[in-house]
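On clarity, I found the account of how folds are encoded harder to follow than it need be. Since the whole study asks how a given chain folds, the encoding of that fold should be made plain. For illustration, here is how one protein appears when written out as sequence plus structure tokens:

:::
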Amino acid sequence: MNETNYSRVSEFVLLGLTSSKELQPILFVVFLLLYLAILMGNFLIILTVISDSRLHTPMYFLLANLSFIDMCVASFATPKMIADLLAEHKTISFDACLAQIFFVHLFTGGEMIILVSMAYDRYVAICKPLHYMTIMSRNVCVTLVLISWLVGFIHTTSQLAFTINLPFCGPNEVDSFFCDLPLVTKLACIDTYVVSLLIVADSGFLSLSSFLLLLVSYTVILITVRNRSSASMAKARSTLTAHITVVILFFGPCIFIYVWPFSSYSVDKVLAVFYTIFTPILNPVIYTLRNKEMKAAMSKLRSRYLKPGQVMAIVRNALSMETK
């Protein structure tokens, strides 16, 4: 194959979620509302943690960083997917496609390490409570967040290394709403069996190793909690339940797509929607509904910035301006 054939494809066609013209406007409204809810919900968690001094603890520091990454995970492809639901031609340039691949693995890889860090934080808090503030110091928390971004960057760089030099000179239709790496590599003009195995091995190693670390840490924590019955341990069980729920919701689809590569494209598409849209919106719901401290801090935040009668005053002022 000549060198000139390597860059024949300059853009890809994203087939999206559905080809039904009747269903696309409905999906546009649904996913637009979900995306706005993701941004508002996670931003509210970050604002609450920053504004309330009682939440300036390692657990909530990591939770705020998880919310930030959730916003990033939801933003790398969702806005374009929403716009494409009303577009006639759903195309993406080759460079933009590579950018989507880069960011999805950067953010999801970082989120895996953040979840592991949160599990470690809960392990120290429950199993070594007397040494908690010493072990989980501010420097340690900042280091854990930096490590999550570093691991995400190394992971996504290694994934892009498998793709960036592949020759794309023929088919250019990606059966998804974003450039998912396994689907894009199948469009190359050469046999990508070995490359696909390397991609699965890379993503599988990070996903499974993170999941096993989480499984071991939560098992140890559950054994420790089972032997205690105080009110503080009841609080620990509630927090732990929220963490485990988030881990299952995030790792389930990721492991199924990348570690179990024999699923159908339609299943992969549903799972991709789940971990890029539904998980980022479920995380703030799970952590706020099951956490009394977060609910109390949000109520305090609301009363500080939105005092009783303030909404009515704003409405009255707006009406009076209209009549003038």
Remarks:
- The longest strand covers residues 11-14.
- The beta strands are 11-14, 91-93, 173-174.
- The radius of gyration is 23 Å.
- Residues 8-290 form a domain with the Rhopdopsin 7-helix transmembrane proteins fold (CATH 1.20.1070.10).
